[in-house]
Amino acid sequence: MNSGPAARSFFFFVRMGTPQAAIMKPTTTLSEATARAGAEIRSALDAYPGRLTLSCSFGGPSGMVLLDLALQEEPRLPVFVLDTGLLFPESYALLAETEARYGIRVDAIAPLQSVAEQAATCGERLWERDPDRCCSLRKVEPLRKHLQGYDAWMTAVRRDQTSARSRLATREWDFENQVVKIVPLVDWSEDLGWAYVREHGLRVNALHDHGYPSVGCITCTRRVRSGESIRAGRWPGFIKTECGIHAPSANA
Ligand code: SF4
To answer: Atom 6, ligand 1: which residue's CA is nearest?
Structure first.
């Protein structure tokens, strides 16, 4: 059962008792950023023993960095992926490689309906007509259900990725899911993530070498053109920039 109120109390204690904890210093070097992220992960593990889980999309370098850092701190940390059933083969391949490399089992969280079942109830190719509804069914609702078994989750989102993420705190109360959201790489940059990947020899999604800096569902991700932002290839043709699992919290 989710012990949300206890987690919420602790969260507000952290926010009020150590206000500087949520205002991270600008990143200067990889070693400083790594130490800071590691300390945040350690602190989260201590605060939520057995009640913390890690989300990884296998669609960007930051996710692989956070996974590497977190598993160094706790090799048995539960890791999950929101498996929409529409991920690229390269993402599934990276998932399998990651399981082998770290000796872990990634929990693939599936939506209530298969893609075919969704087509039968909502019509074919819902993502082309109503991507918000599709993301809600295939990502937001499965995440909410999965997090009912935890008090906190970690994610590799960063402030520099979208305007909606620009005010993220290192720790937030996730109202949508009624758990604490931990964001250890909140002030990292794309370059810093790549520096960590190179220094530690991490495997990343093979599509990054083919014009896909950010990889989501195969139906909603295109190649990025020269000069475009790294998330310009997500939901092409829509103004949508977020799937909905990172709804702004009251602290953002
Ligand atoms: S990214 Fe596209 S296909 Fe994937 S869940 Fe969202 S709308 Fe559906």
So the answer is: 135
Ligand 1 pocket, residue 142 CB under 6 Å: no
- State yes or no: is 243 an active-site residue: yes
Residue 111, number of CB atoms within 10 A of its CB: 22
Whether 206 contacts 90, CB under 8 Å:
yes
- CB atoms under 10 Å from CB of 89, counted, come to 10
pLDDT tens readout for residues 200-214:
999 999 999 999 999
pLDDT of 16: 32
Let me know if domain 4-210 sits in CATH 3.40.50.620.
Answer: yes
**pLDDT of 152 above 80:** yes
Which of 91, 128, 135 to probe ligand 1 with, by most ligand atoms within 8 A of CB? 135
**Four-CA torsion 27, 178, 56, 224, nearest 10 degrees:** -70
Q: Is the CB of 104 under 6 A from ligand 1?
A: no
State the Cα angle at 27 between 70 and 101, rounded to 5°: 25
| Rounded Cα gap, residues 120 and 71, in angstroms | 40
Distance from the CA of 55 to the center of ligand 1, in angstroms? 17
Predicted TM-score (pTM) of this structure: 0.87
